[in-house]
Amino acid sequence: MKLLIALLMLFGTYSAFAVSNEYDLAMKLSMNGKLVASPHVIVKEGEPATITQKNNREEYFIEVVVTESEVQGHKGILMKFVVGSIGSKGEKAVLSRPQILARENSPAKMAVGSKENGPEELSLIVLVKKKI
């Protein structure tokens, strides 16, 4: 029992000193110009977060991992997404794996596919803020 209490105290002390950045993400997911989801989530740096959104007929998921990064000499907040749909039997179909390097408090937009070439156009707008 004493060992368990000592371990709990050790882990509690460690977590109190561990620094983990958190980010506030406000997103808008559209398909063919029609808004299908507007999720909002708080994400810890380097840890995956998943959001599911259901509308009248379909269900979508957005997975994201956020890190501070530099790409081609540009510093920012890198967001790696997996965007997809969830079928009626729970099967996931990945629609896109966009990565967005954004500046804090500045909206970033990504679009994939096109109406003319067959696949649906998928667009994602995200506004990221670092939580203090």
What's the count of strands? 10
Query: DSSP strand (E) fraction?
Result: over 45%
Radius of gyration: 18 Å
Distance between the termini: 37 Å
What integer is the average pLDDT? 79
Gross morphology:
globular
What class would the helix/strand composition place it in? Answer: mainly beta
Share of residues in helices: 10-25%
Uncertain segments are 1-17
Order of helices and strands: HEEEEEEEEEE
Q: Write down the domain tally.
A: 1
**How many helix segments?**
1
Report the major sheet.
5 strands, antiparallel
Question: Can you offer a commentary on this structure?
Answer:
- With 132 residues, the chain is mainly beta.
- The protein has one domain.
- It contains one helix and ten strands.
- The chain has one helix spanning 2-17, and strands spanning 22-31, 34-37, 40-44, 49-54, 59-71, 74-86, 92-96, 99-102, 108-112, 122-131.
- Strands 1, 2, 3, 9 and 10 form a five-stranded antiparallel beta sheet that branches.
- A hairpin with a 5-residue loop joins strand 6 and strand 7.
- The longest helix has 16 residues, at 2-17.
- The radius of gyration is 18 Å and the shape is globular.
Features of the shown structure:
132 residues; mainly beta; five-stranded antiparallel beta sheet
TL;DR?
The protein is mainly beta and 132 residues long. The protein has 1 helix and 10 strands, in the order αββββββββββ.
